[in-house]
Design brief:
Radius of gyration: 17 Å
CATH class: Alpha Beta
Shape: globular
Low-confidence stretches: 248-254
Structural class: alpha/beta
Number of domains: 1
Strand content: 15-25%
CATH superfamily: Vaccinia Virus protein VP39
Largest sheet: 7 strands, mixed
Bound molecules: S-adenosylmethionine
Order of helices and strands: HHEHEHEHEHEHEHE
Number of helices: 8
Strand order of the largest sheet: 3-2-1-4-5-7-6
CATH topology: Rossmann fold
Helix content: 25-40%
Length: about 250
């Protein structure tokens, strides 16, 4: 862990502070084919909307040019959902993280096309960003939508939703801030529920799985799956207030 990193502010022995060496990653870096439009969007967009990784706390107000609740997204894929949510919630800032180049290019394109001022992109391992750059208690929310399920049992250790990851996320949330996960893989959904429920700093907003919050649009893929009778599971947990209660949501107004 970087001494300069935000994790240095955590109490010794905290689960997230122990999340120091990253030998097992939740992604496999395949750059994939980048279209000319995506390449151009990166070239033109990233100098302005891209934030480079540095092992030092990030000044979120300076990054977005204003003080507003900030939601961090882990693994935005092609960024369609990310752009739709940022457009629908202009009073919230979104820090969207993805390692996959074509996805970064696609989101740069969407940001330019729609003139979204409340979205910034990082192309880096989101775990390292959370650990090293995000100050304790700084986030209004964290989105983890359809993370790679790593179906095979021997790959389950690659799943991003693990106790250490959840403890790290919880430490970066402000009291009342939320962690929203969604998956279409039932066994991963059960796994997520177990792991999130075991994190003492978080409290479930529902009795088990949550209804899909209005701000998360149905994806094309999800629509097709639902028509075929496949399920989708949302989980929304909130960081407890210091006194143990759960405060209202500053970001979504729920
Ligand atoms: C199955 S895709 C889902 C993408 C998107 N959230 C959606 O709903 O369509 C999971 C994405 O997470 C990204 N990812 C996985 N682990 C990551 C990490 N540690 N940091 C950043 N991105 C990650 C992968 O590159 C992949 O694009």
């Amino acid at each position: 862990m970087s001494e300069a990193g935000a994790a240095a502010a955590l109490p010794e022995g905290h689960a997230a502070a122990r999340f120091s060496s990253r030998s097992i990653r939740s992604f496999v870096l395949r750059q994939g084919r980048m279209t000319e439009g995506q390449r151009r969007a990166i070239e033109e967009g990233m100098p302005e909307i891209g934030i480079p990784y540095r092992a030092a706390p990030l000044d979120l107000e300076a990054a977005f040019g204003r003080a507003a609740p900030t939601v961090l997204e882990v693994g935005f894929g092609m960024g369609e959902t990310t752009a739709a949510i940022a457009q629908a919630r202009p009073d919230t800032d979104f820090l969207a993280i993805e390692v996959h180049g074509p996805g970064v290019g696609n989101l740069c394109k969407l940001i330019a096309e729609r003139g979204l001022a409340n979205l910034r992109i990082m192309q880096h391992d989101a775990v390292e960003v959370l650990r090293d750059m995000i100050p304790v208690g700084a986030l209004a929310g964290v989105h983890v939508f359809f993370p790679d399920p790593w179906h095979k049992k021997r790959h389950h250790k690659r799943r991003i939703v693990q106790p250490e990851f959840v403890a790290l996320v919880a430490s970066r949330l402000a009291p009342g801030g939320y962690l929203h996960c969604a998956t279409d893989w039932e066994e991963y959904a059960e796994w997520m529920l177990e792991v999130l429920a075991a994190e003492p700093v978080l409290q479930n907003t529902a009795d088990g799985f949550a209804p899909r919050p209005d701000y998360r649009p149905l994806t094309k893929f999800e629509n097709r799956g639902l028509r075929l009778g496949h399920g989708v599971w949302d989980l929304v947990f909130r960081r407890r207030a210091a006194d143990g209660g759960v405060t209202g949501d500053r970001a979504t107004g729920t």
